[in-house]
Amino acid sequence: MSNLENEINRRRTFAIISHPDAGKTTLTEKFLLYGGAINLAGSVKGKATARHAVSDWMEIEKERGISVTSSVLQFEYDGYCVNILDTPGHQDFSEDTYRTLMAADSAVMVIDASKGVEAQTRKLFKVCGMRGIPIFTFINKLDRDANDTLDLLDEIENELGIRTCPVNLPIGSGKNFKGVYVRENKTIVTFSDTLKGTKEGETTVIDYNDKDKVLETIGQDLYDKLEEDIEFMDTVSETFDLEKVRAGKLTPVFFGSALTNFGVEIFLENFLKMATTPLPRIADGEPIDPVSNDFSAFVFKIQANMNKAHRDRLAFMRICSGHFDATKEVKHVQGNKNMRLLQPQQLMADDRKILTEAYAGDIIGVFDPGIFSIGDTVCATNMKVQYAGIPTFAPEHFARVRQVDTMKRKQFVKGINQIAQEGAIQIFQEIASGMEEIIVGVVGVLQFEVLKYRLENEYNVDIRLEPLPYEYIRWIVNKDEIDVAKLTGTSDMKKIQDLKGNPLLLFVNEWSVGMTLDRNKDLKLSEFGNML
Ligand code: G4P
Fold first, then answer.
1. Which atom of ligand 1 is nearest to the CA of 89?
2. Which domains does the chain have, with CATH numbers?
3. Going by CA atoms, what residue is nearest to atom 17 of ligand 1?
4. pLDDT tens digits for 360-384?
């Protein structure tokens, strides 16, 4: 195997998704700990103390102690080179959260064992489902009282529409949490609660056939329950099938407790084996093999002003094929220009490490002098590829923007357009009203504050935001066949357009969306504004 092939094949690039507080940050921290990337758990994020999140770049994040943007972490484990794409943990997440999922090859879904599937898990899962990427489930917080195992699995299957295959089963929970039963080799791994924050947990492995030892360790009641669960799983649950996992149709489920480190290493080891190597991406309808092609990448995120002193802008790229050599020129396909990528870097906490090389599967940040847009392709100068763009995700909150000082129209238009170009917000206009009335749509409401803050601080423009009641936006898929003026919707429906003049519809509730489709039989709507 060539060095290139070896480097690419040992890469695993995944996103961690969860509802806030399920334990995503704690689990990430433990991964890094096992990978030797950090020495002490707690250095990634602490909410209660003054410690700040890895991605605390913007002042607004620092003020609130939450993470608005996503970041990327890389570590080595057991011969693998692992890239974790962290997604904001706060419920005011943004479109960036969704876009980050476009750069990953698999996802780890963290679920709180006492809460089950929650709202944000559902939303993020939907985007992963759209791409059909493998999803690995870690049911966390077993050291606290948990919902019944079968109910949890049932909920994942019914609510998310994916089959489950437990790799291990928990034995008790909360004060009675004894450990897990590993189905593959019929053993029990016991739990020790004593070593928070260190990786050396004191676990013992017991052969399940040694009934006396098992009973002595877990007691009759938990034994009976476990017997029941095992029997049920062996007869009812789907058998493990790697093909189905990789097609996103079956999710392997692991139980554990990130806080106390229990089950984290079992999860990491198994999931790295099951997860795919960097997947081919589609360009012009054709999959581009990551190994046999030269360097190519696409931009999935643009982050402005990460360092206030420099007022810089970084474009984040996912490398899709080949080897990136920082000394070589590359082609920016959309700009039709050859160039050197400036200051290619990897981000780790507040650190930026300048890179000289990277491989397919890796994520790099490069200095952006204002030329890149989300979805752009960059590739070796001799290549001809253009990756399929990134869908525009439906904003769920809308506001009308009013300028306080109308004299500053130019700065306002420049600022709001630049911020929209970075993809933090989407801007719309009322149909045929010119640029006067701007409507801003965001995926998470915090983006409204980010917009206001950035316009004030970077463009010296004050704005007032008037919230609008709409929550559902739909792009018109067959816009060329439909006479938008004649559409008959519900009374709450509002017709707007994006800056390219594409018509869109806004609704207050989902019922109105259905009603409008009923009344206009030919109308086709989409919640993803795909590269319009
Ligand atoms: P998030 O990134 O998904 O939002 O969750 P995060 O890891 O920040 O965890 C949320 C809270 O849940 C934290 O407590 C964390 O310590 C706790 N937690 C995470 N995993 C486990 C687990 O396996 N068992 C138990 N019992 N708790 C867990 P916090 O008090 O909100 O924050 P902190 O002060 O501990 O940082």
1. 4
2. 3-274 (3.40.50.300), 281-380 (2.40.30.10), 397-526 (3.30.70.3280)
3. 23
4. 999 998 988 888 988 999 999 999 9
